[in-house]
Specification:
2 copies of one chain form a homodimer. The first copy, chain A, has 9 helices and no strands. The longest helix of chain A has 23 residues. Chains A and B meet through helix 6, helix 8 and helix 9 of A and helix 6, helix 8 and helix 9 of B. The structure holds a DNA duplex (30 and 30 nucleotides).
Chain lengths: ~190, ~190
Amino acid sequence: MKPSVKDNKRKAILDAATELLALKPTATLQEIADHAQIGIATLHRYFSTRELLLDALALNAIGLVDEALEGIMNDDSDMLRFLTEVFEALIPLGSKMSFLSFAASVDENPNILAEEARIKQPLREAVEGWQTRGLLNAAMPAHWMITVMYNLLFVAWQEIQNGNLAKNDAPQLLVSTVIQGFGASGRSGS
Amino acid sequence: MKPSVKDNKRKAILDAATELLALKPTATLQEIADHAQIGIATLHRYFSTRELLLDALALNAIGLVDEALEGIMNDDSDMLRFLTEVFEALIPLGSKMSFLSFAASVDENPNILAEEARIKQPLREAVEGWQTRGLLNAAMPAHWMITVMYNLLFVAWQEIQNGNLAKNDAPQLLVSTVIQGFGASGRSGS
DNA sequence: AATAAATGATAGATAAATATATCATTATAT
DNA sequence: ATATAATGATATATTTATCTATCATTTATT
């Protein structure tokens, strides 16, 4: 069951491709091969068509998110800790998240749309639980909160790439942003 | 100085093209023409090459944002009102905002990058002022706040398009999200 | 070291997108 | 109503991207 060297290379290609396509969705196969530092012939050996590559990218992203969320259980006791762990796990996957939302909606692939909804389930259930408990604003639609959080994962990833945000600061900043907002800590309303 | 009928059509094409490209950056000229409900020959008459079309899209987006922000002055007295007005003005331009950030970074067009920074200036100055006054969290990087707000403009626009969010609810929801976050209204941090 | 597998560069073929040109039809203006 | 301008459909050419095939070189295996 150990991943072969070929599997590793395949994963490296997928990672590089996702990274580039998240920033430049119109990248050609040649550009993708360059970014992955391989010849275009090799790229074709691993993924015979662009369409197959895109499908593999989506499946890879889903698998990585599943893997990252594995083991992060919500014991319903400590919301901030749970959120921090989720963000720590998912920020490095920012480009994958972004690609997923885009590619899935673009390709209208129902399979991938379903998977995308599935991987959002844990966070959705957690949010709804916290709303019931009065920890989160019950008047705000849960769907909006989820959407915002997943989008901010990509924003954070991008800011890290651009050198505007320290990797280690990102999870806390995200938690603070979504829970408290930008308001001064004491009070916030008018 | 009145816009001619041809200018109006030109703008209509730009609007339709932005809308489509924001959702599907890989759209072909044929798809853009279809979405704008014109023949591809007419599209070529207005914009002779794809590159010229993309440049025009960026310039149009910048002009619309300028126009939308015109007249919204920050009197430094009422942060929530100012933010609400900015969001009311910019949410309908969500697809333009999104296209701008993407196209500019993709094309590496320095002109557009500069304009993009310029249209963010008013909000940046306002945020920094509010931080000084203690209305906003001074420990949070202003750059992060601006980036988040501009990204959420597109998210809100998208949610409206998808039918998940009422147009009239969006500005308030955005203000609430960025100022208070998702926390229950009373208190938020641990 | 010898063998097998994988790679990259390159060339060529196919397919797709973009760009140009023509013409009949529709809309607009006067 | 007529003339002018704009449009859309279509055909064609050109460019670009994708895909396939070949072969020498590099890398891995034993």
